[in-house]
């Protein structure tokens, strides 16, 4: 008897622990929306855009080297309608020799998009990673700011043309330890990456002000199409904090765990703050790592995805939503993380069906569903 009670207490404690780790979420796909069979997001998007009053761009990453091509062909017709080159528009690919523009892969991704009626977003013109070998460590601050950055930004944005919906003009330039009260310069210096420190590991500053960001943006502004959005794109952003204040592209590399994502209300507050400033927001690189590829975690992932999508859909100023890597076997987070909408064989996961359901709900003119990723005790979804 005693051992039964002990094991029952242990089981209860374990159940409580598991429940906390994987909330019993409520999903629209539990209430009559499709949870199996074909997904027709592409055919719903025009009605989504009609309700938004402008085109809603929903898509994912692509590079021509990615296999299997036939799966991409199908998915960028029927599900995704917006393309970002995962690596092909980065500085190492687009200016492999100083002053020599090579937009081959970036253009190929753009052509892939155009051929399927997809729009295209640009990622990125400036990042401290994936730089060409000729660049870091070889120039003075004034050469970099006065010549190298403007020339690169101009040749890339100009070369890709005015149809690009948005460009990540600078990527990941704010430190994770940025706090309220710091100046923008202090936030950027706290990043402690090239070019505000040299690339030789000495920690010596190269650029000591925000001139490199200004150079990139002023060139982008002068070169981009009139409707192209220009972004500071960064991770660990979306809530009410100093780092978020400096970004408008919210990467959203998330984890399905308490504290691993922002709540829908935090996102809504951030989007609304930007809207009041007349600034657009976008979800640029969404994925959600799972502790375990179990049914409970797949449902948790679906709820978080649904909440992020709703936050963007129901905001007046969010019109781009990118899923970073379209399937688990191609994800930079690794197959076991199961961080994308489609599994390692390209089959839709609960999150893909939930995304479709949220789009249908929005397109039908329904009010915004409550936030589901905190569990059913907080919110229970219903179809009507
Ligand atoms: O192209 C080479 C290939 O020639 C070589 O044989 C192979 C050997 O490792 O490497 C290939 O390059 C890889 C490249 O992806 C293309 O597949 C690099 O090693 C690899 O580091 C690179 O990873 C990319 C990563 O950025 C680089 O930091 C990921 O695909 C890409 O998803 C990831 O994307 C970034 C965003 O741009 C910015 N935000 C964070 C996000 C995730 O890290």
From TrEMBL:
Keywords: Carbohydrate metabolism, Glycosidase, Hydrolase, Polysaccharide degradation, Signal, Xylan degradation. This is Beta-xylanase. Belongs to the glycosyl hydrolase 10 (cellulase F) family. It comes from Mycena chlorophos. Residues 1-21 form the signal peptide. Gene3D superfamilies: Glycosidases. PANTHER family: BETA-XYLANASE, GLYCOSYL HYDROLASE. Residues 42-358 form the GH10 domain. It comes from the Eukaryota.
